[in-house]
Amino acid sequence: MGEERTTAMGRFDIHDETAVVIGGSGVLGRAMAYALGEAGARVAVIGRSAEAAQQVAARITSAGGVGRSYACDAQDRPLLEATAREIAETLGPVTILVNAAGGNSPEATTTPERSFFALDPVALRSVVDGNLLTSLIGCQVFGEGMTRIGRGSIINIASMSGLRPLTRVPAYSAAKAGVINFTQWLAAYLAQGYSPQIRVNAIAPGFFLTEQNRYLLTDRESGAPTPRAQTILAHTPMGRLGAPDDLIGTLLWLASPASAFVTGIVVPVDGGFSAFGSV
Ligand SMILES: NC(=O)c1ccc[n+]([C@@H]2O[C@H](COP(=O)([O-])OP(=O)(O)OC[C@H]3O[C@@H](n4cnc5c(N)ncnc54)[C@H](O)[C@@H]3O)[C@@H](O)[C@H]2O)c1
Question: At what angle do helices 170-193 and 121-128 cross, to 10 degrees?
Answer without folding.
Answer: 30
